[in-house]
Amino acid sequence: MRFIPTKVHGVLDYIVGIALIAAPWLFGFASVGGAAVVIPIVLGVGLIVYSLFTKYEWGPFGFIPMPVHLVFDIVASLFLALSPWIFGFAGEALNVWLPHVVVGATVIVVVLFSQPQPARTRPVAATA
Predict the structure, then answer these.
(1) What is the dihedral of CA 37, 85, 66, 14, to 10 degrees?
(2) φ, ψ for residue 16, nearest 5 deg
(3) Is 111 helix (H, G, I), strand (E, B) or coil?
(4) Rounded CA gap, 80 and 32, in Å?
(5) How many whole angstroms separate alpha carbon 69 and alpha carbon 53?
(6) Exposed, middle or buried, 127 (CB in 10 Å: 0-12/13-18/19+)?
(7) Whose CB among 10, 44, 54, 91 lies 3.0–4.6 Å from 58's, allowing a Cys bridge?
(8) What DSSP designation does 31 have?
(9) How far apart are CA 5 and CA 76, in angstroms?
(10) C-alpha torsion sign, points 22, 25, 31, 36
């Protein structure tokens, strides 16, 4: 069931991190200000930082085990998806809150299908 290799997951991490940072301008809600704008930027920066420190193909400082990285992804994505209701901007226009929900939910799906270990460190099945 986990068919997304960590090498692909890592590329997605950096793309999503950059997209989250740019989201207020990409989706035209930068003028709304407050949590709607700050949350994706902070989570995008955070995603890039913890990706740099993850033990996978795209983590140059390989310190954080991939399963821990995946937990960070889930927690951050749940927070992102629920943030319109937690911080009260769910009543704004769709372009303000829907990106939070869609990106959060999409990252959760990606995590569920991502391999928990890079190929080079995954245990090899014993042959009989």
Answers:
(1) -30
(2) -65, -40
(3) helix
(4) 17
(5) 9
(6) exposed
(7) 10
(8) G
(9) 20
(10) negative
